[in-house]
Here is the input.
Amino acid sequence: MVVTTTSLFPALIAGEIFQKQFKTRHRMINRKNKKNRDEYLKYLLERLGQGELSINTKRSRLNHLLIWCDETKFEFIPKRQEIFRQYVNELIKPNGKPQAPGYKRDLMQEAKRIFEWLAVHKGYRLVTPAWLDTFTYKIKSNERNHLKSVAEQEIKFMANLPTKTLREQRARASALFLFASGARASAFATLPIKAVNLKNLEIYQWTSLGVRTKNRKSATTFILNIGTILDIIKEWDKLVRLKLPPEAPWFAPISSTSLDFDTHKTTIGKHRARAVNKDLEIFGMRNGFQDFFTPHDFRRGHANFLFGRAIDMADLIAAQNNLMHTSLTTTEMYARQRQEQTRKRISIMSGRDTSIQSKGDLSSQMLLEEIIKIKQILKKER
Here is the structure.
């Protein structure tokens, strides 16, 4: 028995254009496949305790698998010569451009996980390790070079977006914080409330506080002083301080049942940074963004914001320190600035107009060369 995609998924990944291989307008979906999909999601929710936000994201991704399988049952799909990767590779956005490599990888991983579950819980013998290998998706090196960056105008637009739920409020605050701080996702997700000092615009990315930084490096970094962005960050900061203890994560856990702060979760999971990424993805989808931004896109946005306002080498060193980079090629010849100097530089650049850059004591060409080198470092970061 089958049902049509139009009756099942009226809002299937809003506006997404389906591929040329689907010549009929109403692609058929096997009802048993949908039932298996729903059972799998229920298992993740009730048995493994995954959050509602995570389940909704997985449901959206698995819609693609249902469409690809068409009328073929999951248990017999390994007999097909066509593999899921072929479908995923042809996915396009509403603007006609290819889907992002990271999005394709996530679709493949989610499809692989449900088949692993089916093999164990439903006894699907055709689902073999060799066949599951066809769900591997590696991002090519040339695809990694096309990296997004959140622009100042985009982050200010996000600051003005309305929020209806606590999760949406958290997602918006997270996006603004990531841009304003330039922090990596792993560090941001593990920041305790007491590590955020908005009065002094300081973030204590210290391993002694449990913050998971790259190479276990500790540093005090600084938040951009941009009023419209900072106001929203302060709203969330005030809320979590009222509800949670100082040791609780600033990216506060939310209960999937009460939809309020989960005061029972006192430890931070190993993969907490994934929750940040999922928050941003769903927040972007609900607000009509064609491309959802990853935490690192906000980090690059922070870097580009500072690069556009740097007028001398000291400014670039301040940007380096705030990004917690160990070195900046040519800047190694300069003495490392003290923390107070970095604070002052970041604060000044926050309010500086980009047009002043040409008035600095370094030639525009030299600054450009240094900025290009720094961006190459950012590209290699994951």
About this structure: Residues 101-121 form the longest helix (21 residues). Residues 1-26, 328-336, 358-362 have pLDDT under 50 and may be disordered.
